[in-house]
Amino acid sequence: MALATVNPTTGATETIIEPHSPEEVEQRIAQSAAAARTLRTTTFAQRAAWMNAAADILDDQAEGLGELITVEMGKPIAQSVAEVGKSARSMRFYAENAETFLADQPLDDPSKVGASRAWTRYEPLGPVLAVMPWNYPLWQVIRFAAPALMAGNTGLLKHASNVPQAAMFLDSLFERAGFPKGSFRTLLIGSAEVAAVIEDRRVKAVTLTGSEPAGRSVAATAGKSIKKAVLELGGSDPFIVLPSADLTTALETAVRARISNNGQSCIAGKRFIVHADVYDAFVAEFTERMSRLVVGNPLLPETEVGPLATRAGRDELAELVDDARAKGANVLTGGFIPEDSGYFYAPTVIENIPDDARLVLEEAFGPVASVYRAKDNADALRIANQTTFGLSSSVWTNDPDEEAWFTANLDAGAVFINGMTVSYQELPFGGIKDSGFGRELAAVGIREFCNLKTVWKA
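Structure for Aldehyde dehydrogenase family protein, as requested:
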């Protein structure tokens, strides 16, 4: 089946790209395996020069790439251009720090293990398959590719089928910057063909960012093949507001957290859990601000919320809201599909959600905010931890005891105090529970796909 760019703003098909044949897939895996043997012998300095050159390409083409991203998946143009810049910064970060992150680690007192010297070293594994989503078409890929290539691995990309132009840009990016041919290769294949690539003995590991079902499938195949896997899956992150918080800043951030990327971010605040003492005031203003958002063509600078990336995603979001409303939830604003072409959904705030509504436990991937009234701090924590997800969280308080207590007790891969969750290249990123395992970014991210080898010398 052909891959297509379907503009979510209009619903029109912009570009059709034919998938790779089995022979082409084989050729690309072979190129990746050959490049891995070469790349592991190059120096950090050489790889850093190539990586910085690739970052230069992104910076030079930021405006055009931003428009490509917006046309393929619908985010506001300023956010698309910012994604390109963030990707370039991450590439420079790993170019600068990879050698330090992967330096040999000597044992302080080797005599304790009967040696004159003992140390550990990090070595690349080889070709790593990345199965990536459409919501950040460049950033999600680069945050894998930059550390993987700087470690001496090669990358194989199975990108989402609705962003084929971004996938093909990435296919040539690193080779244009000087990396050996085959160092990074896109595979234009369907989901059904992923398992065979993971099982290929030349492929040494796999990383996936995507849905929970996709993660379970990839993890099962990797486990059967005894291969390393890193999974970053869904999230239904709590945004907890307590009476001691700066409510003005919390409100401004809450709106931004919910609508960033048109609400299609795994780490977006999705469930707004507000202490009863400030619930009415917070929710009234939050609803007012959500109702005033400018929805429209994401290529226009004044647009704050663009379309959902796909019709199926928009319809699934609408089903979650309709299910909650039918079971007694109260929609404060939004809750409908606008009468426009494209895959838009009105910014929505919904409260009094019954426990049997799907929205309680499922991820709302779009501009829909669920609000919950918490009786006290213990009730806020209960609501926050009741889902099967555990990606990130945001807590708003100016009480040091509350800060410490929530930090220690939230089931999440990260806790942000008085700020919205953001992925930073300097900090590890990942989740627990059904949000996945393993970490990306920072030093741990580059070490995930390395062999940690122990060396002992008499």
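The chain has a mean pLDDT of 98.
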